[in-house]
Amino acid sequence: MVLPLSLIQTAIDHPILIELKNGETYNGNLIKCDTWMNIFLRDVICTSKDGDQFLKLPECFIRGNTIKYLRIPDEVIDMVKEEPTRRHQNYRSARGRAGARVGNRPQPAKQKPKPGNQNRKKKSEN
Fold first, then answer.
1. pLDDT digits (tens, 9 = 90+) for 34-67
2. How far is the C-alpha of 41 from the C-alpha of 86, rounded, in Å?
3. Following DSSP, what letter does each residue of 4-70 receive, concatenated?
4. pTM of the prediction?
5. What DSSP string runs through 3-15?
6. Does residue 13 carry a pLDDT above 70?
7. d(C-alpha 82, C-alpha 65), whole Å
């Protein structure tokens, strides 16, 4: 399983094409990407939505929530290593299970019902 951010991190120093939600495209060399998918490019060519205007920029910052899609070269995809699935499987196996034990933590002791609560139930039944 290849995670998107690990794929983008592998693409650093490679050419990349980014299309934004407004239709503009940016071609450039990927310099940096953070966890919010904010991207910093160098030697950028920006193309307008209609494709009739071109801008050459020395560098460019693109906010992650404006990105529609990324096109990454096939050579980068081949370079991506598979993440160890064991770590993710251990995390998933404990999700949603109230009694799941994590690590060496002891199981919590089961609480015994208090005698006072049982007496109240008997009185209300009469």
1. 999 999 999 999 999 999 999 999 999 999 999 9
2. 34
3. HHHHHHHTTTSEEEEEETTS-EEEEEEEEE-TT--EEEEEEEEE-TTS--EEEEEEEEE-GGGEEEE
4. 0.63
5. -HHHHHHHTTTSE
6. yes
7. 26
